[in-house]
Amino acid sequence: MSSQFIQMNVEFNTPVENVFAVLSDHEAMGKVLGAKVKRVKDGEGNVNGVGSVRRLTPAPFADFEETVTAFEPNRLVEYTITKGSPLKNHLGRMVFSESGGKTHLHYTIQFEPKLPVPLSGLLVKTILEKVILSGLHKLAKQYQ
Predict the structure, then answer these.
(1) Stretch 20-44: mean pLDDT, rounded?
(2) 3-class state of residue 18 by DSSP
(3) Do 58 and 130 contact (CB within 8 A), yes or no?
(4) 130 in helix, strand or coil?
(5) What is each CA distance from 13 to 19, 48, 69, 102, 141, in whole angstroms?
(6) Residue 50: partners with Cβ closer than 8 Å, 6 or more residues away
(7) CB of 94 within 8 A of CB of 77?
(8) Count of structural domains, the chain
(9) Phi and psi (nearest 5°) for 62?
(10) Where does residue 112 rank: exposed (0-12), middle (13-18), buried (19+ CB within 10 A)?
(11) How far from the centroid of its chain's Cα atoms is residue 94's Cα?
(12) Sign of the CA dihedral 59, 61, 62, 65?
């Protein structure tokens, strides 16, 4: 089974705290992605911080859970899928930086498909990248 890697870079014409506030908040991130997202467990020190768990339902009966593994305000959010997904060895990482009042987001996702179906990883990668980038670009337009 092939490991997949997604790399996305998006610039926002607003300070980093504005973008971080949206993308680190589970429910707000769901709106960006167009998926139902609900925080099911609060994190340590911050409700969306380390240890927080969110349930995503991108389609009916297709829910899974992600757990935040690293959280640095206005700088970093890392998470992994911990329940109910056809993916394994998953790691999502959003790194935020600011320059000249603009925010740069470097967002990576790596994973492997659980099922030994040819091209399934590539299909998931293509769909994830398209959906996430679309949502991020819509969010970026709100700050123009």
Answers:
(1) 93
(2) helix
(3) no
(4) helix
(5) 9, 24, 28, 5, 9
(6) 43, 44, 68, 69, 70, 71
(7) yes
(8) 1
(9) -125, 40
(10) middle
(11) 7
(12) positive
DSSP 3-state of 68: strand
pLDDT digits (tens, 9 = 90+) for 92-139: 999 999 999 999 999 999 999 887 777 888 888 999 999 999 999 999
Please report, for the domain that includes residue 135, its CATH number: 3.30.530.20
Closest C-alpha among 27, 28, 25, 7 to residue 142:
28
Tens digits of residue pLDDT in 84-104: 888 899 999 999 999 999 999
What is the three-class DSSP state of 129?
helix
Query: Which amino acid would we find at residue 109?
Result: I
Beta strand extents in the chain (DSSP E only): 4-12, 36-41, 53-57, 64-72, 76-83, 87-99, 102-113
- Domain assignment of residue 23, given as a range: 4-141
For residues 106 and 95, is the Cβ–Cβ distance under 8 A? yes
